[in-house]
Design a protein that fits this description.
Chain lengths: 144, 175
């Protein structure tokens, strides 16, 4: 249950409510995002338990917009292995559509799966993969 | 034209067979390598080799647990995860599904495979019964690793009454 947060912001990846990966642009805003992200974790948990009760057959991994603040929009995603991804995007970035956010989360998920399959990675450690960093960088360049 | 047709026919079937065989050979070598150091290690040494194999299986299972599940949230309850092991994981690794899954509904599951691919080439019946545990340790770890990634802590053991049938017992560890 790790968390990953991405924003224009930041990308943070969480496992059991401690961070596996944090990346923000610009980097000095990291502390601000920590607070925002901890709040969003509660929302993620709410959404997951709400989905659990729903009788819907197909439960999505993409959780959608968790909550909007006046400056930022926070999106969430959860995997079957209970890893939570949180993405924080600047509100002024109105060009970003829902399906683009979905595809970014999918890319994050695929890269995280690759990290898990890396024999030099111990599950539960902070992610230090340069390949993962590179993927996140290219994603943030797209967003900012 | 004929060669093309034959190639296409052999294509996917042969590839799948090749994948399975590669893993079987590798697995056999892993077991042989661990026992080659000391062919008669005694009970203490045996335990170490078995736990090494189990540990390898565990790490592989962890990765598998991340890679295999589909694009939707598939597991509402524990039983769903066990069914996933029996169907999807077994099919991905052994090209067949588990033959039966039983539970006491109190956290113990027994998964039965009547012709376990890693035992099937060895013998049929009671010959090599003593050696069988060596060939089950990795798979026990695999099951435990996949369960671990999917959020379930467990203890997995295997037993063989007669090759190639075997049972895997999964006991959920609740803290």
């Amino acid at each position: 249950m790790g968390w990953i947060l991405v924003a224009s912001a930041a990308v943070i990846l969480f496992l059991q409510n401690y961070p596996l990966y944090i990346r923000s642009v610009p980097t000095e805003n990291e502390l601000k995002f920590h607070y925002m992200v901890h709040t969003s974790l509660d929302v993620v948990d709410e959404k997951i338990s709400a989905m659990g009760k729903a009788l819907v057959d197909q439960r999505e991994l993409y959780l959608g917009l968790l909550y909007p603040t006046e400056d930022y929009k926070v999106y969430g995603y959860v995997t079957n292995s209970k890893v939570k991804f949180v993405m924080v995007v600047d509100s002024s970035n109105t060009a970003l559509r829902d399906n683009e956010i979905r595809s970014m989360f999918r890319k994050l998920h695929n890269s995280y799966t690759d990290v898990m399959c890396n024999p030099f990675y111990n599950p539960g450690d902070r992610i230090q993969s340069r390949a993962f960093d590179g993927m996140v960088t290219s994603m943030m360049i797209q967003v900012c | 034209m004929r060669t093309l047709g034959a190639g296409r026919l052999l294509g996917t079937g042969a590839r799948r067979m090749a994948d399975a065989v590669l893993f079987e050979f590798l697995h056999t070598e892993m077991v042989a390598e661990l026992w080659a150091q000391d062919p008669d290690p005694g009970p203490g040494g045996q335990k170490v080799s078995l736990s090494v194999l189990e540990g390898m299986g565990f790490r592989v299972g962890q990765a598998l647990g991340e890679r295999l599940p589909r694009e939707t949230l598939a597991f509402r309850e524990e039983l769903d995860v066990l069914k996933f092991l029996c169907k999807d994981v077994w099919a991905a690794v052994f090209q067949k599904q588990m033959d039966s899954l039983r539970t006491n509904h109190q956290g113990t599951y027994v998964l039965q495979d009547n012709s376990f691919p890693l035992l099937i080439r060895m013998a049929s019946g009671l010959q090599y019964l003593e050696e069988a545990p060596k060939f089950l340790a990795f798979t026990c770890g695999l099951l435990r690793g996949t369960l671990s990634t999917l959020g379930i802590k467990s203890l997995v053991t295997a037993s063989v009454a007669a090759l190639p049938a075997c049972k895997f017992q999964v006991v959920i560890q609740r803290s």
